Amino acid sequence: MIALKNTDSGVLVDAVMLAEDDVSIVFSFTRSYFHVDLERVAEAVVFLKSIMRASGERAVHRAGARQAGQDERYRELMRHLEHTRDLFAHAPGEPGLVMVCFTLPSFDVVFR
Fold first, then answer.
1. Facing residues of 103 across strands?
2. Measuring CA to CA, which of 3, 59, 108, 110 is 20 to 30 A from 71?
């Protein structure tokens, strides 16, 4: 992985990581986000999955491919709903004035 830095004198190499374990840390449990504008999101997701083996597909999508992440989250929820009888319930916490939050007991996501 090569980290580039845009400076007044041009683009410089700021850091280089060669070990797979080091690269995986950048995109996994550090919860670092990055933003990209891609024509083909699927190819970027395949690449990120190759360096984030232990993190799972949701982490890959959350890391940078927001729309793909939302799509994958929806498909994951639909697959989960096929195998549960759980009902949606209000999420624990203080009620808000702008939105309602809800969850499923067997799914570790809060929806708003």
1. 89, 110
2. 3
